[in-house]
Amino acid sequence: MSLKDIDISKVTYFDLNNEINIPVNGQIQLGKDEEALEAFLNENVKPNTKQFSSIKERINYLIQNNYYEEEFISKYSFEFIEKLYDYLKKEDFHFKTFMAAYKFYAQYALKTDDNAYYLENFIDRVATNALYFGDGDEKLALELADELIHQRYQPATPSFLNAGRKRRGELVSCFLIQMTDDMNSIGRNINSALQLSRIGGGVGINLSNLRGAGAPIKGIHGAASGVVPVMKLLEDSFTYSNQLGQRQGAGAVYLNVFHPDIEAFLSAKKENADEKIRVKTLSLGLVVPDKYYELVAKNEDMYLFDPWGVERVYHKPFSYVDITKEYDNMVANPNIPKKVIKARDLEEQISKLQQESGYPYVINIDTANRVNPISGKIVMSNLCSEILQVQRASVINNRQEYEVLGTDISCNLGSTNIVNLMASPNFGKSVEVMTRALTFVTDKSDIDVVPSIQHGNRLAHTIGLGAMGLHAYLAKNQIEYGSPEALEFTSVYFMLLNYWTLVASNKIAKERKVTFDNFENSKYADGRYFDTYLNQEFAPKNARVKELFDGIFIPTKSDWTSLKENVMKYGLYHQNRLAVAPNGSISYINDTTASLHPIINRIEERQERKIGKIYYPAPYLSNETLPYYKSAYDTDMRKVIDTYAAAQQHVDQGMSLTLFMRSTIPAGLYEWKNGRTDKMTTRDLSILRNYAHYKGVKSIYYVRTFTDDASEVGANECESCSI
C-alpha cells in the first residue's frame, strides 16, 4: 500500500473528526477527535511509512538518495545519533489531536520523491532539527531535542521544514528591501524581489523614497509616473517568480502616509479599481508618523511632500527625514513641492479599504523609533508587520553595482509555546537553547543574490523569538483573556523572554568576542536601555499571577543591574532578538492557539483542499475552560490591543496584531456604538487604530471581518513569515 493508493471514501478518520461538530445531548464529542487521531495513524501513517531495520540504515538511505545532506550528519558519531534517538523515544511523544497529526504528515514530514511513502515521523523531524541546528555540538543537540520534543520551542516553518534536507529552500522566513529615488535602484530592487521570491519567503519593499506621479525627471522633458506602476511591476514579478508554481509569490509594499501618491496607492487595492492600476495579490502597508494622528485629531489639512524635493533639501532619502519633527518646516519651505488633502478624508479612505480588503497594514513608525535602542532608523516592516529593524540605504550606479552597500533584512524566526515553556524545568536555559538555534540560522544564512540582504545579516545577526498559545494558557488556567491578571501575566512572560535572550546574546558575544555592528553606538552600550527595568518593577503583583510563576526565576533590579554591566562590558551578539509573528498551521502541530490572539471558534472549521472540512477543538477544551474561550469576533478589540501592548513594552521589534471585527457588531461591545448603528463603520476602525497608537503598539497587521453571510474578509494567511 502507498499514499497514492488511499481511498478517501474508505478511511474513517475524516468522518470521525467531522463528528466533533455534531453535539450529542448538548455536549461536544471531543472523544471523536481522539478516535480520528488513532484511525489516521493506523489507516494512513503506519501502512505508508517506509521501514528500515536500523537508524543507521535509514540515515544512509536518506543520504544516498539525496533526501538528507551528509555534512550535518557527519559532524556526529552514529553512537551519539542513536543516543539522541533513544532519548527522544523515551520521552514518548504523542500528537494530542487529529489536526496536529494530519497537518504534520501533510505539510512537514519528508516523503519519497513519488509521494508514495513517508520517510519521517515527528521524532525524525525533531532529531534532524536538533542535529542540524546543533552543528556538531552534542550537548546543544541534546538540549535542542529536549526543547523540540516537549514543544517548548517551535522553529519557523522554513527552518523546521528545511533543516537537514538536501533539496531545500532557505531557512529564513522573509526579507525587507528598500528603493531609493532613481531608476538604478528601482531596477535592482525588482531583480532582488525576483530572486528572493524564487528562493522562498515573502518580500517587503519600501517605496516611500520614490518621487510622486507628476514630479519632474532630471534631464527629461516629462514627469514621473509615481509608485503605482512600480507596484504593478513588483506584483508581476512575484507572480512570475513563484518557486515553479509551488506557491503564489508574496510581496508587500510600504508607503509613508505623507507621500503624494498615498491616495493612488490605496486605490490600487480597491475591488473596483481599473485593471491598469489594480493590484490583486500585493499586500499594502502604511508608514504612519505621529504627526498624522495629530492632524486627524485636530481635523486639519494635511500636506503631502514629494520625496525628490525633500531629498533635495535634506540631502537624504525621504524615509530618513523625521516628518513629525520637520513637518512645519517642510510646509513652510517653498523648495519642497507639496499638495494638500484633509487628514480625516485619508483616515476614512484607510478604514474603507480595511473593511473591503483587510489592508493596509499600519506601522506606527515614530512609536517604533522612539523605543529603538539601535543607532539608525527603522523605515518599514515586512510581509507580516512584526519585523522592525534599522536599515541603511544603498547607492547603485549605472552598471547596477553597489557604490554604497546598504543594509537590508532577512527574518530568522522562532516561537515559544507558552503553555509548555511555563512548564519547563529551567525557563532561562530553554530560552538560551532557542536563542542558539536561531543564531545558527542567522550565521549560516548567506543570501548572496541580494548583497544588501547578505551584508545586513552579516553585520546584525538578528533573530526574532516570539510566542504562541496565550489564549490556550489563559483558558487552561481559567483566566479571562484581556483581564488584569492576563495582562500582567503577558507582561511578566515577555519580560522573562527579554531578560533571558539578553543573557544568551551577551553570553554568545562574550564567547565569540563579537558584537553586532555599531553596538558601541546603541543604548545597550551606554546602559540607557536598562533604565526601564531599573526604574520600574515588573515582577508579578497579583496573587494569581504570582501563583502561575511559582518556581520560575524572576529577575530583581540587582539581576538587571548585573546584566547591564555585562552587556556594557561584553556586548550583545544580536542586534534584534524578539518579534511575534503570526502562526499558521504550525500552531496546530503544537496543539495550541495561534500567537497572542483569542481563538476564532471553540471548534475551528478548516477547509482542506481535496479533503473537505476538518474540525479542530480548542486546546484543553472542557466544561471548565469553555467560558474562557470567547471568539475573537465577540471580543472587545481593545482587550487584544491591551494584550499586545503589555508584551510590546518588552519586545524590541514588533508583533503581528490582527483586529477581528463583525460586520454587525454585538450589542454592548463598544460603548461608542450605543444609540448608533450596529453595523461596523469606518469610525469604529479609526477609533481602534488610534487606541493602538495611544497604547504604544508599533504595528497593526490585517483587519479580519466576519460578514453577515458568514464569510471572512482579510483572512489571508502569511505563510512566508508565519511560525
From TrEMBL:
Gene3D superfamilies: 1.10.1650.20, 3.20.70.20. Its EC number is 1.17.4.1. It catalyses: a 2'-deoxyribonucleoside 5'-diphosphate + [thioredoxin]-disulfide + H2O = a ribonucleoside 5'-diphosphate + [thioredoxin]-dithiol. Residues 560-582 form the Ribonucleotide reductase large subunit domain. It holds the Pfam family RNR_N. GO terms for molecular function: ATP binding; ribonucleoside-diphosphate reductase activity, thioredoxin disulfide as acceptor. GO terms for biological process: deoxyribonucleotide biosynthetic process. Keywords: Allosteric enzyme, ATP-binding, Deoxyribonucleotide synthesis, Disulfide bond, Nucleotide-binding, Oxidoreductase. One of its GO terms (cellular component) is ribonucleoside-diphosphate reductase complex. Provides the precursors necessary for DNA synthesis. Catalyzes the biosynthesis of deoxyribonucleotides from the corresponding ribonucleotides. Belongs to the ribonucleoside diphosphate reductase large chain family. This is Ribonucleoside-diphosphate reductase. It comes from Ligilactobacillus salivarius (strain UCC118) (Lactobacillus salivarius).
